[in-house]
Amino acid sequence: MSPARLSEATRQAIDTALTLLGKVPTTQARILVTLLLGFGTAVRYWLADPGGWAPSWEWLGFLSVWAGIDAAQFYGKRVTHQGLPTTEGPAA
After folding, report:
1. pLDDT for 65-90, tens place per residue?
2. Where are the alpha helices (DSSP H) in 1-90?
3. What would the pLDDT profile of 8-65 be if each residue is shown by its tens digit?
4. Please, are residues 45 and 53 in contact by the beta-carbon 8 Å criterion?
5. What is the DSSP letter of 89?
6. Non-local CB neighbours of 59 within 8 Å, separated by 6+ positions
7. How many CB atoms lie within 10 A of CB 74?
8. 15 with 33: CB under 8 angstroms?
9. In whole angstroms, what is the distance from residue 82 CA to residue 88 CA?
10. Which residues, 6+ apart, have CB-to-CB distance to 36 below 8 Å?
């Protein structure tokens, strides 16, 4: 369906959704999703029959890499928003 055929209500809904998505703090959202995935994996493991289910090494590796990327993004944003040191001498 082409954008010209969308109704006005559909266009407004899409515009509202994109506006809300644009305002989401992405770093916090990524960290929340990573924590939920890790917590969900742990709960699934704890609730499984003894010796019945264990997460694959690929899944655990994915979660580890994803958490590392989140931590690096969080650190990178904090470092870049601290401001630049001044190069001027002391005020006279």
Report:
1. 999 999 998 888 777 666 656 566 56
2. 8-23, 26-47, 57-80
3. 888 888 888 888 878 878 888 889 999 999 999 999 999 987 878 889 999 999 999 9
4. yes
5. -
6. 41
7. 14
8. no
9. 18
10. none
